[in-house]
Amino acid sequence: MAESTHKRHSSTYQCRRGRSSWCCSFAVPPSFQKNKKPDYSVSKLGPRSFPNSPKPGLNFVGRIDPRRILSPGRVSPIDSDPTGDTTRDIIPDPSPPVDLNSKSRSESFRGRNERSSFSDSGSGSGLDSGRGVFDVRLKLRGRNGGGLVLELNSEVLIANSEVFAGLICEYRKNLGSKCDGDGSGNLSRKMCRIEVPDVENLGIFRETIELMFEEDIAKRLLKVGAYRAIDILEVSAGIMFTKGVLSCLKYLEAVPWTEEEEDRLRNLFAVFKFDETTTQDILARLHLLSSEDSKQNLARQLVWSITTCADANARNELKSLVKGLLCKSSVYEKDQHDPNKEDLYDVCQSCLGSLVSLMEEASGTISPGKVLKKETSKPLIGRISRQVDNINWLLEILFDQQIGEEFVDMWAHQGELLSMHGSVSPMVRYELSRVSAILFIAMGTRKLHCRSEERAALLQAWFCPMLLDFGWLQRCKKGLDMKALEEAMGQTLLTLPLKHQDVLFTEWFRYFSKHGTECPNLCKAFQIWWRRSFPRGSETHAVESR
């Protein structure tokens, strides 16, 4: 009875590697009911899924849309036809088919329209000898349904893949003991059946298997492109297809990558451990092979270079480039390349020092002979404007990094610049108020959060110079939003203690009454200050006391 049952049903050998499972069966699979469409979404043995991150030994899922590329050997949908006819149409696929008559393909490759000598063990026919023998049936089950059956030559699989070699050898070992037990002793007539469940992309897996039968893999990779080669590399690494891995690495090292392809390679190298000698060229493109100190100084060197750049057009282009790379929302953000706080403030201090020297030259407190010859080759106004542009650009980076509070204190205590402000031409001194304007706008729009003492010190130092320079700022805006500046100045004044507001709003009122539109319009903020300072019912008393 047991012997009869064994003949009617296929005995199944399950080989486990790590946490994944593949199945090797010895005989004809059980027949489905006639005209009933088989369900391939779930494996009979309940196999686990194969995620993109590999498990020990058997992790190889690619991630790319399917392509129509025929597999080595006869290829068909999984079918239970006991006659062994596996020459039916393959699963439809939108891409054009690859020519199966290529001269570079080995003898172990058989197109889908060729009839092989294989038949199921129950049919009584034998297998041809030599490299043309198809003695392995590889059944692929797709994660989203569908499947493929590839009939292949075992010697080719053993020679190319350590994973398949292990499965086939274990199968033969187990089969040998069964044949010795029943006295048949004919291993050559047995078909090794290997089932791979839950394959995410059948086309990639099939194409990787096909490369084992190619004599010139590099030539084939030239046709598929870098994106698909990365998928093939992932599958090849999972099934330990060494020749495929080396060919993919060699091809990928020689071609340009898109950003998406580069990210996929980084993820792949983070998961798989390849031979260092083989991958050193690709790793050199993916990682900066230098000391940590040089990595940390890279952004600092870029910032320094921009602040000393002489060409205006190049400087503006580089400012936009580097600011985009260093901003918090940048897709290129790399923590090890970000400039630290001290580096940025060192550059700020250098720019402030240069600005002080230029203002001394403008005020006549420094002899022209002390100025470097290369600096005197350009107009003084242009050099001052360039330093102010550098400072404002650095402030944008500081605000984005949320480390700009210390600059408020630095600017509030620029005694030398304040003392020279009234002694130089208005067309020069207004450049200093451009820096103050950036700080006022940042505080008024809540991008900069400073202590009350720092805000008070800044406004006490630079509020009156701003009133003097506002007319020039209106005429030479240089990208400054004057409405936003007026609103921000009023909002910032209202954050001070009332005793400080009293002094500053009174000064504004006196200056505005004389100069009108040459002065910022803070009427809205002035009304708010008045209501807070003199609650309803106390206005008469306040006027009389004044």
TrEMBL record:
Query: Pfam families annotated for this entry?
Result: BTB-POZ_ANK-like
Q: Does the keyword Lyase apply?
A: no
Query: Which pathway does this polypeptide act in?
Result: Protein modification; protein ubiquitination
Would you say which domain of life the source belongs to? Eukaryota
Q: Membrane as a keyword? A: no
Composition bias of kind Basic and acidic residues appears in 102-117
The ranges of region (Disordered) come to 31-127
PANTHER family, per the entry: OS04G0278000 PROTEIN, OSJNBA0011J08.25 PROTEIN-RELATED
Q: What is this protein called?
A: At3g05675-like ankyrin-like domain-containing protein
